[in-house]
Amino acid sequence: MNRLLAWIRRMRAASVDECGTVTVMFALSLPLVIGMQMLVVDGSRVFVERRALQNAADAAALAAAQYLPTTDPARLVLAREEAIGFAATNGVTIGPADIEFTTDTTPFDRVTVRAQGSAPFFFAPGIGINTGAVSSLGTAQLGVVGGLIGVMPWGAVAPAGGFVFGEQYCLKLGSSGGGGVCDDHDQGNFYALDIDDNGTSSASTYRDLIISGSNTVVRAGQVKDVVSGNMNGPTQQGTGCSGNSGRISGDTSTFDDIVVADGDSYRVLDWSSPRLVIIPRVEFPDSQHALILGFSAFFIESCGSNGAVVGRFIDTVVPGGEWAPYNAAVGAFGSLAVRLVR
Predict the structure, then answer these.
(1) Is residue 331 part of a domain?
(2) Per-residue pLDDT reduced to its tens digit, 219-228
(3) Could you count the other beta carbons within 10 Å of the beta carbon of residue 200?
(4) Span 306-323, pLDDT tens digits
(5) Are residues 231 and 160 in the same domain?
(6) Are residues 189 and 293 in the same domain?
(7) CB 195 within 8 A of CB 211
(8) What's the CA gap between 184 and 319, in Å, rounded?
(9) Distances (CA, A) of 89 to 42, 59, 75, 77, 287
(10) Which of 84, 91, 123, 221 could form a disulfide with 38 if both were Cys (CB 3.0 to 4.6 A apart)?
(11) Phi, psi of 322 (to 5 degrees)
């Protein structure tokens, strides 16, 4: 009996010691638990705020890049104003000092926007820290379209002196003809191309590609076969001239409905317009092949007999497509692209 009572006393003592140990351990670990809560909850607030700032900085940089490349002070002012406006739309306030223009391949083809803010803390105020400073950088670079799907099966050749953006041109199929529709316009030529490398001179395939554009990504540097045969009729059918049901038939929109002059460049209001097309710019290593140099945005205003198309080339940023570095020669083609740089 005495042994049993002694054992019970020892168990009670051990239990008291363990309770004391647990209490001490809990007291020691409590700051760590609170610290982990601060790290998780308040750290999440910092992450969310930084993501919002990053989105605002990216949007502002992309907006400003539409005005590049340029060293014109007036254009740079417009770029800054555009960046500030887009940042404000995303709930972030920036100023001119937060916007920096730099050079990569041509003067001032990059813009960097710094967005700054703060994240309110939930637990940290308990130790005297109410907010955390947060900042993000967004950098965008202007280049040219290096590749694109949906381009026209036309290889355009500029007249002597090149095309002038915004002026009306009559593009003739081949180096002659035009059916009289070109008599009152500056002129250029284009040639029918096997744009998707179908290996065919089918008139119906060429006609359908005028309506829909290429089905594959067409890239600068590729060589395309020149389609043989008389393609005047299929060109008229594909564009929708002379009562044909084609690309622009039934569409009554005008140049001013779709395109707005924006200083030295242009802003497109509706890229879904069937009159707005992308035309490869080419040169000919021989009479049967066309080397694609780059791409041009073109608004089709009318078309006529003998494969003539009347419209205007514009200098603008094209959505989508593959980005390629800007240079003076390719930039003159007017089909520009913008990318974010990390």
Answers:
(1) no
(2) 999 999 999 8
(3) 13
(4) 788 999 999 999 998 899
(5) yes
(6) yes
(7) no
(8) 33
(9) 26, 10, 21, 18, 53
(10) 123
(11) -95, 135
34-67 pLDDT, tens digit each: 555 555 555 566 677 788 889 999 999 999 999 9
Q: With 50 as the cut, is the pLDDT of residue 166 above it? A: yes
Report the pLDDT value the prediction gives residue 16, as an integer from 0 to 100. 46
Range of the domain at 178: 150-320
What does the DSSP assignment read for 290-334? EEEEEEEEEEEEEE-GGG-EEEEEE-EEPSSSEEEE--HHHHTT-
Amino acid sitting at position 187: Q
Query: Both tokens of residue 118?
Result: 């703060």
CB neighbour class for 204 (10 Å; exposed up to 12, middle 13-18, buried from 19): exposed
With CA atoms as reference, report the closest residue to 266 among 276, 274, 251. 276
Number of domains composing the chain:
2
pTM: predicted TM-score of the whole model, two decimal places: 0.80
Across-strand partners of 303? Answer: 309
The verdict on 237 and 289 lying in the same domain is yes
Whether cis (ω within 30° of 0) applies to the bond prior to 31 is: no
- Report yes or no: 152 and 277 within 8 Å, Cβ to Cβ: yes
d(CA 325, CA 304): 37
Sign of the Cα torsion 75, 62, 167, 161 reads: positive
Question: Rounded CA gap, 276 and 284, in Å?
Answer: 25
**Residues 161 and 254 occupy one common structural domain:** yes
SS3 label, residue 45: helix
**Whether residue 138 sits in one domain with residue 160:** no
Looking at the chain, list the stretches that DSSP marks H as alpha helix, in order from N- to C-terminal side.
2-37, 43-65, 73-89, 203-212, 232-239, 255-258, 328-331
Cα–Cα distance for residue pair 73/82, rounded to 1 Å:
14
277 and 161 in a single domain? The answer is yes
Q: Is residue 5 part of a domain?
A: no
What are the tens digits of pLDDT across the range 98-156? 999 999 988 999 999 999 876 665 555 655 565 667 889 999 999 999 999 999 999 99
In this structure, the answer to whether residues 199 and 266 fall within a common structural domain is: yes
Residues 53 and 169 placed together within one structural domain of the fold: no
